[in-house]
Amino acid sequence: MLQDRTYEVLGDSKTRTVDVRVICATNRNLEEMVARGQFREDLFYRINLITVRLPALRERPGDIPLLVNHYVRNLREIYNRPELEVAPDALRWLREQAFSGNIRELKNLVERVVLLSPHQQLGIADFQALLQPGKHQQQAMPLQAGNGSLPLMSLDEMEKAMILQAMLLHKENMSKVAKSLGLSRGALYRRLEKYNIPHEAAH
């Protein structure tokens, strides 16, 4: 089908034609894989007519503020926070980060911060608290809330707060809750059991 745009349905001797344009995406070096015998050479030359290389996000840091502002504009409507914005110093700080997960990691980070932070203007501390798992999260600064401040939260307390906030915002639609938190439904339910959160607890 890729070579001459024809195919036959199983059990039918009639040849059919198809008019399609095939677009493939990969994060692997297919030429090297062909040389190592790990990818079919004939398939490679059938799909490799025109190659477009998309540089990693770390190679185009100037795109980061544009992407962050784009995500925030969408999240203002989703979470009904029309005054939400990112502080200029936070945008500059984000430009300096190496997002190994590229755009997906950046988008996930922005939505997590919007879910957890009570601030209308998101600052560096909001992003630092959630940028990387493990030791970096343990060094997070105290979260400010209204006219007072919350004590430094443990990672478990922070995760539980995020889950409850997401459940409230998405009216306990568990598919949307899991997606907004970057979790599978199974992983979300395991966390609900871990923190003893019944569905109605979000209310």
TrEMBL record:
Keywords: ATP-binding, Nucleotide-binding, Transcription, Transcription regulation. The keyword Nucleotide-binding applies. One of its GO terms (molecular function) is sequence-specific DNA binding. It holds the Pfam family HTH_8. GO terms for biological process: regulation of DNA-templated transcription. Coiled coil: none annotated. Residues 1-115 form the Sigma-54 factor interaction domain. PROSITE patterns: SIGMA54_INTERACT_4. The keyword Transcription regulation applies. InterPro entries: AAA_lid_NorR, Homeodomain-like_sf, HTH_Fis, P-loop_NTPase, Sigma_54_int. This is Alginate biosynthesis transcriptional regulatory protein AlgB.
